[in-house]
Amino acid sequence: SKRGKDLDIKLYTSNSTIYDFASLLSHFFIFVSTSTGTYHLGAISNIYTFTFFGSDLFSSSKRWRSISEESRQIHKMIPYDSSRDDFIEGCKKEFDNFLNCHKLSIA
Question: Is 24's pLDDT higher than 60?
Fold first, then answer.
């Protein structure tokens, strides 16, 4: 069933400058990424970010969170143990709830 507006999801391979990529990100509603420079570019554009971090302190969101508005950041810590299947299912549900809350759906 459709819920509100459909999202147009694209995988992006960059062949241009960081400026071009930052400009592109500024037009996104949400950006899903690992904790890398692309996450920080999305965050400074003040779009919603759904970001995956490692569970240890070195790679956690406590160390690498962005300075953008916290209400627009969703941080997920990837477990190192066997609970990854539960983690993935939990992330799917949380992302679906986010989409429902904003009356969006995946096309």
Answer: yes
* pLDDT of amino acid 4: 52
For residue 49, the tally of other CB atoms under 10 A from its CB is 26
Q: Which amino acid is at 57?
A: L
Q: What are phi and psi of 17, to 5 degrees?
A: -85, 165
| pLDDT score, position 94 | 92
Supply 98's token pair. 């986010």
What's the predicted TM-score (pTM) here? 0.75
Long-range own/partner contacts, residues 74-81 (CB < 8 A, 24 or more apart): 74/48, 74/49, 74/50, 74/98, 75/51, 76/50, 76/51, 76/52, 77/52, 77/53, 78/52, 78/53, 78/54, 79/55, 80/54, 80/55, 80/56
